[in-house]
């Protein structure tokens, strides 16, 4: 997972990006990079490899445009909008390379009952499990019961970063895959 990133890997990831997704602050989407790869490819490869060597991303590449996309036909409240971060294409390439590498180890880190965020696992299985458990919940069989509904809507804002980083280290996730986020 901590091996260097190859020219082919960078090119393949760039060419896998949707061509017309939001281009970010400098206005160049993946379509531009694909069509001018023979001109800009070397610079893209150098920038991505430099990031993986140093874990430092230039501020110009680490900026986003925040767009509010309506969830409903006539939005009138902030909750009626979905915020979308329009990241620069170079940032997307780096993020996708990291995501591919983390995807390999996720099934070993995320326990089997956790069904979301792991390919091949279906969250619907847990819905069926909850329905089965709740079917006779109302019956008094003498044992105390408790159920809890957790709203994860703002969970990211409550992340204990020290705990998260210690957990990643315990699972031997190379620090190069997460260290860069600490400087921003």
Automatic annotation (TrEMBL):
This is Reverse transcriptase domain-containing protein. It holds the Pfam family RVT_1. SUPFAM superfamilies: DNA/RNA polymerases. It comes from the Eukaryota. Residues 74-178 form the Reverse transcriptase domain.
């Amino acid at each position: 997972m901590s091996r260097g990133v190859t020219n082919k890997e960078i090119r393949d990831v760039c060419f896998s990006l949707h061509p017309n997704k939001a281009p970010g602050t400098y206005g160049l989407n993946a379509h531009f990079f694909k069509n001018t790869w023979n001109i800009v490819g070397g610079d893209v490869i150098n920038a991505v490899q430099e990031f993986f060597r140093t874990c430092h991303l230039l501020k110009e590449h680490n900026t986003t445009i925040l767009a509010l996309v309506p969830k409903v036909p006539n939005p009138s409240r902030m909750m009626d909008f979905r915020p979308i971060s329009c990241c620069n294409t170079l940032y997307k390439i780096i993020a996708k390379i990291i995501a591919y590498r983390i995807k390999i180890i996720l099934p070993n880190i995320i326990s089997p009952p956790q069904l979301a965020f792991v390919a091949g696992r279906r969250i619907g299985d847990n819905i069926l499990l909850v329905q089965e458990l709740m079917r006779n919940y109302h019956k008094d069989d003498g044992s105390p019961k408790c159920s809890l509904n957790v709203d994860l809507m703002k969970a990211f804002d409550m992340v204990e970063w020290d705990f998260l980083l210690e957990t990643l280290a315990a699972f031997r996730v190379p620090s190069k895959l997460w260290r860069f986020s600490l400087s921003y």
